[in-house]
Specification:
alpha/beta, four-stranded mixed β-sheet, 25 strands, 26% strand, binds shikimate-3-phosphate
Length: 430
């Protein structure tokens, strides 16, 4: 493999070793945002190395909450409570949907106007899903046509709402709960399907009361937050690439210490086990409400299966690598109810199908999913990341079992969530 933006990946013979996965991206975003509006200085070990999380840190600094990276790698964020200041320039959210959507919830409740923008990919992504509830709470938000960024948020006093989002989205839920901190009364979000709950768990860690019942979360406005010291668990969605790689090599042995085991994310492990990967989890601990464990994985048979309904929402970030690697499985993979994949960093249904076809695979593409037949032999090809971190990493894994060399253009997109991905992958393949 080379380290330039175009990366060459060659077939591997086996896979073995230990990878220390960087801190979870979803949790790091939420910790950075809540630390900014908490009283006191928060300290985070194993904060995500993702460029996306640095976009969030850049925004909170522009809002007056300074942060520093310490010699031991910890990130310290100086909270300024209710004293966020009006940014002097538009806030750059880079490639990060989490930054723009969740931070908008906080900005809607501030007594100033702010603008948020992002790169070309982010500028195409739908924001109506957060604009609608925030408008119902009393914020005035301007966007480009079709509810696309940039956003201009005229913040102010908010009223509490009871909201039922149409899409199952943790970013929308978190945005509304964050806005609820600045509203008069109880804000309630009831989701169509339960999504990751890091927003609720993080709010509680910073001292807020959040009640859950079924698929609904309720927060009371006006609560003060206090600083925390936390260790961010390893990102399970990043671990997914290595777990799928292990599944492709019978006899592989992989150890991943300190990985997030939150039940709203860990459905991945059940699915991988159903598909044939042998997994054991040990050394379980809890930090600030988040479960952490060490994963040991061993490759054996790789069967395939179906992902639909609530599983699709629970596995939304892992579907590209599961689908792409399923070409080598015995029975293939069917993915349904996944139209959200079309509005991620790239159209992930099209990106997976296009790259697989270039490698000689058969793929059936549907408006809301994919069918990948199993038992296929793939050959190396010239692929594109489509500027999407998860596509770059997914196809590096597929390439390990293909015949011949694969080149992935725009592979540096991996840095959006996992800057050291290719080095870490090289350290475990032979
Ligand atoms: C995230 C939620 C998911 C996921 C994204 C991170 C989060 O997006 O795809 O990578 O941290 O809340 P949606 O909420 O849009 O489904």
């Amino acid at each position: 493999m080379s380290s330039a933006s175009t990366i060459s990946v060659y077939p591997a013979r086996s896979l073995e070793g230990l990878v220390r996965i960087p801190g979870d991206k979803s949790i790091s975003h939420r910790y950075a945002m809540l630390a900014a509006i908490a009283e006191g200085t928060s300290r985070f070990q194993n904060f995500s190395a993702a460029q996306d999380c640095y976009s969030t840190l850049g925004c909170v600094r522009a809002l007056g909450s300074d942060w520093t990276k310490k010699k031991d790698g910890a990130i310290e964020v100086r909270g300024i409570g209710s004293n966020l200041k009006a940014p002097t320039q538009p806030l750059d959210c880079g490639n990060s949907g989490s930054t723009i959507r969740m931070l908008s919830g906080i900005l809607a409740g501030q007594p100033f106007t702010s603008e948020l923008f992002g790169d070309e990919s982010l500028s195409r992504r739908p924001m109506a899903r957060i604009m609608k509830p925030l408008a119902a709470m009393g914020a005035r938000i301007e966007s480009r046509e079709g509810g696309r960024p940039p956003l201009k948020i005229h913040g102010g006093p908010l009223r509490a709402i009871q909201y039922k989002p149409e899409v199952a989205s943790a970013q929308v839920k978190t945005c509304v709960l964050f806005a609820g901190l600045f509203a008069d009364g109880d804000t309630l979000v009831e989701e169509p399907i339960r999504t990751r709950d890091h927003g609720e768990v993080a709010l509680r860690a910073f001292g807020a009361q959040v009640e859950r019942s079924g698929n609904a979360a309720r927060i009371c406005g006006g609560q003060k937050l206090h600083a925390i010291e936390a260790h961010v668990p390893g990102d399970l969605s990043s671990a997914a690439f290595f777990l799928c790689a292990a599944a492709l090599f019978p006899g592989s042995q992989l150890s991943l210490p300190g990985i997030l085991m939150n039940p709203t994310r860990a459905r991945l492990l059940d699915i991988l086990m159903q598909m044939g990967l042998k997994i054991t989890v040990g050394q379980l601990e809890q930090h600030h409400g988040e479960l952490i464990g060490t994963i040991q994985a061993q490759g054996g048979s790789w069967k395939g299966g179906t992902i639909s309904g609530a599983d699709t929402a629970a596995l939304i970030d892992e579907i590209p690598v599961l689908a792409a690697t399923a070409s080598y499985s015995e029975n293939g993979l069917e993915v349904r109810d996944a139209k959200e994949l079309r509005v991620k960093e790239s159209d992930r249904i099209a990106s997976v199908a296009t790259n697989l076809r270039k490698m000689g695979a058969e793929v059936q593409e549907r408006p809301d999913g994919l069918r990948i037949p199993g038992g296929q032999r793939l050959h190396g090809a010239e692929l594109d990341s489509f500027g999407d971190h998860r596509i770059a990493m997914a196809f590096a894994i597929v390439a390990l079992r293909a015949e011949g060399q694969t080149r992935i253009q725009g592979a540096d997109a991996a840095g959006v969530s996992y800057p050291a991905f290719f080095e870490d992958l090289m350290s475990i393949v032979n």
